[in-house]
Amino acid sequence: MRDVASAAGVTKAALYYHFKDKADLYTRVGVQRIDRLRDAMDAAVDGGGSLEDRLGRLTEVALERMATEVFQPHLHSHEHLDDAHHQELHRAMDRLQEPAIRCFVETGAPERPLAPRTAAALLGGITFSLLFVGDEIFGDVDLPKDPRERARLVVRLFLDGYRGLIRDGADVEAEVVGS
Questions:
Q1: Residue 8 located in a structural domain
Q2: Which ranges of 81-134 does DSSP label H, i.e. alpha helix?
Q3: Is residue 113 reached through a cis peptide bond, with omega within 30 degrees of 0 on the bond before it?
Q4: From CA 170, how far away is CA 178, in angstroms rounded?
Q5: Which pLDDT tens digit goes with each residue over 61-88?
Q6: Cα 123 to Cα 178: distance, rounded to the nearest angstrom
Q7: 172: domain CATH number?
């Protein structure tokens, strides 16, 4: 805390006035970073356009910033935070789905086969899985290196499956419950 206070140009007492302890400081900074990413994702979908256009812009922002602003700090938090602080970070990360949910709602995407929250979670899963696929992990892979092209791939993968479910008239909830 002494190093942080010195770097910020404040006293340690002033730092403790605003933050209970190191875990509180780390958590609040982490939540702030996640919230800034969510704001950037919101701005990306504000430009209007089709569902595909909006999801493409949102996914591009996520691919550009998710690893450094969410994933790495989250991994670090497992080592240094208690469960209550860790859960606070998870609640902030859950809010990262809000811009995608808004895309589905505002573009009038059908409620079936997937509710907007479910569709957003699946899009997030595909995005996250392609975030770290690269030569250093899986060897020689045939994926675009350009973030914009990778984002378009994520959206196409998701929307092709989503539209396929609509075409087939699938009721995902009925299929899951019935299995």
A1: no
A2: 83-94, 98-106, 116-131
A3: yes
A4: 13
A5: 999 898 888 888 888 888 888 999 999 9
A6: 24
A7: 1.10.357.10
